[in-house]
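User: Sequence for 7-methyl-GTP pyrophosphatase below. Tokens please.
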Amino acid sequence: MFSDTSVPIVLASSSQYRKELLARLGLPFITCSPDIDESPLPDETPGETGLRLACLKAVTVGKQFPDAIVIGSDQVAECEGEQIGKPGSFEKALEQLKKMRGKKVIFHTALCVRNGHDRNPDDTIQKDIVKTTVVFRNLPDDELSAYLKIEEPYDCAGSAKNEALGIVLLEKIESDDPTALTGLPLITLTTMLRRCGINFFPANEHE
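Assistant: Structure tokens for 7-methyl-GTP pyrophosphatase:
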């Protein structure tokens, strides 16, 4: 296995949330924002959109860092079959929260790891989707509006930051990977990184 410093790792994202999550692993990495169109394709399911975009981010940034391990991730929310992305504004965020209140929402968090260090084409790309089911509380308009003005989560799919005050809007969270809802499923990611040869506990540092 590689030591935690012998192979470059690139996070293909400008998201501060994903950056903070990846930093928990204690591995050195850099970030690079991919220049891609994140619009869903016609007749594409939320999961398909998320996985396509996660892979597109990893592959796009991988062209700039061909020998690196590149991590791409994307999240799409789904409420009653409808895709829910980043609102971008107060008005759209309030509309989203009103639509989701009292309902079950599925967050599809897609992950793609491109291993430029591996010369075996069959092992170059790893991808997966982690689903998180969230039940939103049935809160009145004034509380939803107040929340948005405090936290301004306009860059979050679903208009709520579960790791902060947005947790007040939620009644239940069900997931096999607790960090997936925030934007980067670390359990799934560490499994993929191990397959890339990353050693999280170099022996010489613990002797």
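The longest strand covers residues 104-115.
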